User: What shape does this take?
Amino acid sequence: MSEITDVEIGKLIEKVDSLERTIRDNNARLYILEKELTKAKGMGIGIFLMAIGGTSVITSLVTKWMNQ
Assistant: This one.
């Protein structure tokens, strides 16, 4: 069985620490992207509902105008 030197252990610890920092950074970025996606979905639904409402109003006005 091979023995691991102190230098190798130190390098391994350094790599693990670097990986932990990278994971924390990526988690923070993911959280920000999720918030933006949720906000964009809400805006998309709002725009869609406004378009439906606007179309309804225009249709109603045109119908009233044509029936006069």
About this structure: The chain has one helix and no strands. The helical segments are 6-67. Residues 16 and 44 are 41 Å apart (CA to CA). The first helix runs from residue 6 to 67.
